[in-house]
Amino acid sequence: MAKKWVYLFDEVAEAEKYAGSWEGVRGLLGGKGSGLADMTRAGVPVPPGFTVTTEACNEFRTTGKFPEGLWDQMLAALKVTEKKAGKKFGDPADPLLVSCRSGAKFSMPGMMNTILNIGLTDQVVEGMIKLTGNPRFVWDSYRRLVEMFGTTVFNMDDEVFEHPMAEYKSKKGYKLDTEMTAEDWKAEVSTFKDVYKKHIKSDFPQDVYKQMELATKAVFESWMGKRAVDYRKATAISDDLGTAVNIVTMVFGNMGDDSGTGVAFTRNPSTGEKKMMGEYLMNAQGEDVVAGIRNTQQIAEMVNSMPEVYHQFMDITGKLEKHYKDMQDVEFTIERGKLWMLQTRNGKRTAASTVKIAVDMANEGLITKEDAVLRVTPDVVDALLHPQFDENAKKKAIVYAKGVNASPGAAVGQAYFDADKAEKMAKEEKQATIMVRPFTKPDDVHGMIASQGVLTSEGGATSHAAVVARQFGIPCIVGASMIKIDLVKRIMEVDGNIVKEGEWISVDGTTGQVYVGKLVTSAPSLEEQTDLLTLLTWADDIAARKDIRVLPDGRKAPGVQVWANADYPKDARRARSYGAKGIGLCRTEHMFFETERLPIVQKMILAETSEERTKQLNLLLPTQRKDFDGLFEAMDGYPVIIRLIDPPLHEFMPDEEKLFEEVVSMRVKGETKGLPEKEKLLAAIKGLHESNPMMGLRGVRLSIYMPEIVEMQVRAIFEAAADCSLRGIVVHPEVMIPLTGTVKELEWIQPRLERIAKAVMEEKKVTFTYKFGTMIEIPRAAVTAGEIAKLAQFFSFGTNDLTQMTFGYSRDDAERNFLVTYVSQGILPKNPFQTLDREGVGKLMQMAINDGRRTRPDLEVGICGEHGGDPESIEWCHIIGNNYVSCSPFRVPIARLAAAHVALKYAGKKIVEDK
Ligand code: PEP
Ligand code: MG
Fold it and tell me: Ligand 2: distance of its center to the CA of 800 in Å?
C-alpha cells in the first residue's frame, strides 16, 4: 500500500500515531494543518478539508513529481470533503470551491503561496451567480483566481494583469476597486484570461482538478522560492522541513441575508474583561469588516438577528478558550445559516489585560496559578507600573534623540539645565520639569527628585543619574550623546534643532526616546491594580516554597526573596507596599547631601583635629538616628541593611573647578572679602583630589582612615534600633561595610564598631539580633571570601563596582563610548552593567558564595547592585544560591515575578557550585 500522504482534518489521531508526538504532527502537517486538525478534534466547525504532508512536499522536491499514491489520496479526500460540505467540486449547481494554502511547521508569514477560489470556471461562475445573487462578487472572485493562478503557478509578473486593469479603470474614470461594477469585473475576467493565454500559451484551465493539481505543485515549489529561502536563512529554519498544503473548503459570508462574517476576541483584549468583544457584518466578505466601509454590528446583537448561530458561536468560542486555555482571537463566517470558524489563535493583548486574563483564568480553574505567573513576563509588570506614553501620540511624534533607557516610564516637563533651577521651578513655580545635564553628581539629586524625568547626554546604565533615577522611580535617559548641551546659552541641540531652557520635552525612559513637546501619558499605581497584586502574591508563594532549591549539603531551601534599596523612610514604605521583604541597601551618604546637613558634613571633613571632627559628627548624629528610626519603623519585622559611608570625600565638597574660577575672578577684581576662606577651602579640596577616586579613599578605606564617621553612624543605627525596639517595633539591623578587599580591613574596623553596638544596647538596656557584614565589590574579596566570612556574617554583592573592577571598565564612562560598540560588534553579549556577566563577574560571585559558606554555613547572601532588578541576573542569583536580591522599590514587583519564574524553571534543582 502506498504511503499515507494526505490527512483529512478529522484524521489527527492517525497523524499523531504516525508522527509519535504533537511536535511530530506539527512537522508532518505544518502549523496551519495541525491547527485546523486540532480545532476539528475540539469539535469546532472548521470548513472541511485535508492536508497534504510535508513528506509529500519533500518527495516532490527531489523527484519533481507527485509521489506515488498522492493524487489518488487527494481525490479520495476531496470526495469526503464534498460530502461534508454538501457541495460538489466543479458542479455549477452547487459548487465546492477550495483554497490551496501553504503551511510549514514554523510560521513563515507571506513567504509562500496561497491560491483562493479554486474550482471557479466559466460554467461554475454562472452557477455561483445564481446561488449568491451577487454577480459582482463572483466575477471579482474569478478574476482574482485567474490572476493568482498566473502569478503563482506560472510566475507571471503581477504587472501584466495590473497594467490592463489600471488602463480600464482610468478609461472609466474610476479611482478605487470599489467603483467597479459586476459588468466591469466580468470584462476584466475576459481581459485577464486573454493575458493568461498570451503568456502561458494555453487557456485558463476549465478542468477544476487540473486547477487543484497545479496549485498544489505551485505551493510545494514556493518552499524553494527566493523569498522563502531568504526568510528561512534569516530565521534559522531548516530547508529540509518542507511545507504542507491545505485544501480547505471556501465558505462565503455574502450568500444572502442568512450569511455573514466577523472577527472577535473571547475577552476584551485591552482591559481583559471576560466579555466577548467583536463585530460582524451580514451578507458580507471578511474584507468588508476590516475595510470599515459598512457599519459593523457588535457580536452581542447577533442574539437578535440569528439567535441559534449566536449561541453556537458563544459555545464554540467558550470551548476554544478551554481547549487552548487562553483568550482567542477568532475569525468566522456564516454561510447560509451555518457557522464556520476560519481561524483561532491566542489573541494579542495589552499589559493590563495580560495580567487580568491570567488571574481570571487561574481563578476559573482553567489554568494553574503557576501558569498564570508564567504567562506574565517581567516587562508586562514594568509597563504597568510606570506612566506610559500613548502609542498613537508616539506614532505622530518625531524622535528628537535617543539614549540609554536607564529608568523606565514616561515623563513630560519643561527642560532645565541645572538641579537648582529644576528644583526651583518645580517647587516654587509648580512646574513639571525635566532635568537635563551632561551627567549628574550627588549634589544634583535634589533637582532630580523634584523633576518628572532626567535626561543626560553622557553616562550609562549605572551612571549616577541612572542609579538615582531608578532608585526614585524617575524616568531617565542617559548617554543621549547626539545631544549637545550648552550650559552657558542654556540650550540643547541635535543637528541644528535647538530646545531652549523652559521648553517642553517628553522623555520615554522605557525606550530611550526623547521628543520635543508634550506627549499624552497615563499613570498607573500598584495599589489600584488588584489583579497584579494577586498575581504577585502567587509569585511570592511560589518562590517561598521550602523545597525550591537544594543546598550543596542536601538540605532544601526556598527561592530568592526580594528586598529593596531604600535610603529614606518614604522609600522604605513604598518598598514595603511593593512587597519588599527587607532593605538590602541604604546608601547613608545620600542623607549627608541634604541642604541643612551638607555644611556640617563639609566642616567635619575639613576638621583639623579629631575633637573638631567629633563635634561636627555629634551634630549629625541626631539626624542620622532619625533617618534610621524611620527606616526601622517602616520595615517593622524585616531586616534592614545600612551601609556605612562609601563615596570619596570630595563628592561632598563644592566643585573644585568652579571654586577655582571664583577665587581667580576675586583675585583679578581685587575683592578680598571672603577670599582667604575660599582659598583655604580650595586648598583643602585640592588636598582631597585623587586621580582615580573610584579606586581611592572610599569605602572601608575611608572608615579606617577616618573612623569617627562610621563610629557615629553605627551609634546612630543602634540607638535608633534600640529606641524602635523599646517602642515595640521588631528590628533586625545589619551593618554593611563597603568595598572590602582584604579580611584585615574587617579585622581592623569591625570589632571597634561591634563594641559600639554592644555599648548602645547596654546603655539602652535592650537587646535585639543584628549582623555585621560586607559588600563584595572587589575581585580580591570574592577570591578570599572564605577568609572574609570569618568576620562577615553576610555578603552583599555590589555588582556595579564588582563589574567595574572585574572588567576594568569605568562604570561612569564605558557606556558612553566603547561599550556600545562592544555590544553591537558581539564582543560582549549584553551591557554587563545591566545584565550580570555570568562567566566572569557571576563566576566570582559563585566562588565567593561557596567559599564563604564553607567558612560560615548560614552566611546570608544578597545582591544590591543594579543587577538586583534585572530578571536574567536574578536567575543567576537563584542558581548560585543567593538568599535575596535587592533593587530599587519600583523594580520590586518585577523582581518578585522574576524570582517566581526562576523558581519554577529550576524547581527542586541543586544550587550550582563552581568547580
Ligand atoms: C555596587 O557597587 O553595586 C553598589 C551597590 O554600590 P554603589 O553603586 O553605591 O557603589
Ligand atoms: Mg559600590
Answer: 6
> For the chain, what's the residue count?
915
Ligand 1 atom, smallest distance to 467 CA: 8
Q: What residue owns the CA closest to ligand 1's atom 6?
A: 798
Ligand 2 centroid to residue 847 C-alpha, Å: 19
- Say which amino acid occupies 686: K
Cα–Cα distance for residue pair 156/145, rounded to 1 Å: 13
Return the closest-CA partner of residue 653 out of 619, 685, 609: 685
H/E stretch holding 412: strand 410-416
Question: What pLDDT shows up at residue 695?
Answer: 92
| Of residues 498, 495, 459, the one with CA closest to residue 476 | 459
User: How far does residue 566's CA lie from ligand 1's centre (Å)?
Assistant: 13
If you take atom 10 of ligand 1, which residue's CA is the nearest one?
801
Per the CB < 8 A criterion, the answer to whether 443 and 419 are in contact is yes
Specify the pLDDT at position 471.
67
Each residue's pLDDT tens digit, 732-761: 999 999 999 999 999 999 999 999 999 999
Residues near ligand 1 (Cβ within 6 A): 467, 585, 587, 646, 777, 798-801, 864-865
Please tell me the distance from the alpha carbon of residue 589 to that of residue 709, in angstroms, as a whole number.
Answer: 11
Atom nearest to 804 CA in ligand 1: 2
Separation between Cα atoms, residue 35 and residue 339, nearest integer Å: 18
pLDDT tens-digit series, residues 635-673: 999 999 999 999 998 889 988 899 999 999 999 999 989
Sheet holding 561-565, edge to edge: 860-863, 794-797, 771-776, 732-737, 639-643, 583-587, 561-565, 884-887
Give the model confidence (pLDDT) of 42-59 as tens digits.
Answer: 889 999 999 999 999 999
CA distances from 642 to 150, 432, 766, 860 (A): 76, 33, 20, 15
Residue 239 corresponds to which amino acid?
Answer: D
Look at ligand 1, atom 1, and give the residue with the nearest C-alpha: 798
> How many Cβ atoms sit within 10 Å of the Cβ of residue 800?
19
- Atom of ligand 1 lying closest to residue 799 CA: 3
Measured torsion, CA atoms of residues 250, 254, 259, 265, in degrees rounded to the nearest 10: 70
CA 806, CA 790: separation in Å to the nearest integer?
Answer: 24
What pLDDT is attached to residue 176? Answer: 76
Which ligand is the nearest neighbour of the Cα of 863?
Answer: 1
How much distance in Å is there from the Cα of 183 to the middle of ligand 2?
79
Average pLDDT, the chain: 92
Q: Tell me: pLDDT of 705 over 90.
A: yes
Residues, beta carbon < 5 Å, ion ligand 2: 777, 798, 801
Tens-digit pLDDT profile for residues 104-115 = 888 776 678 889
Q: Which residues are catalytic?
A: 464, 864
Q: Which of 144, 887, 174 is nearest to 563 (CA)?
A: 887
For residue 808, the one-letter residue type is G
Q: Which of 788, 778, 779 is nearest to 851 (CA)?
A: 788
Q: Which of 109, 84, 108, 112 is nearest to 98 (CA)?
A: 84
* pTM of the full structure: 0.79
Query: Using 50, 70 and 90 to split pLDDT, how confident is the model at 510?
Result: confident
**Percent of the chain predicted with pLDDT > 90:** 71
pLDDT confidence band for 289 (50 / 70 / 90): low
